[in-house]
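Below is how a single chain appears once it has passed through the pipeline. First comes the sequence as given, then the structure the pipeline wrote out for it. We keep one example in the README because the format questions we get most often are answered faster by looking than by reading.
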Amino acid sequence: ATEGIRLLNEEGFLVVVVTNQSGIARGFLTLETLAAIHPRMERELRAVGARIDGIYYCPHHPDERCACRKPGTALLERAVADHDIDPTCSFFIGDRLTDIEAGHRMGCRTILVPEHADELEEERHNSPATPDFLADQFSDAVCWILDRDR
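Resulting structure:
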């Protein structure tokens, strides 16, 4: 993903990460651990000339049904406000249909890069969301975005 992020940066795109991190609520990961992961990720990206413009995370358990956990849009709304983003001119890449649903709720064009094809089939029974583009890998998603932007 680092090369794709670098290409997006070079083309003038803001790159914002919005992530569900229920592992915190489940006790698999602490806030301190997550706080160490993000700077490491940013350092690794900087090493190849890439950057993340913002990181937003939801630490809640899915059962809490909070507004910040995707497909909720609270974190996306915050990112839009913080970075003066026009969602209708934006792309939302996700690996789950809940990401696609959140992107649609914000008016973004959406791209699904499923981590596991078998999970995607199961998710389709629980979500009506359909991505604007289905990509095999992150680089395919970036190419699709750059083709649309030109």
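The radius of gyration is 15 Å.

See the next section for the split statistics.
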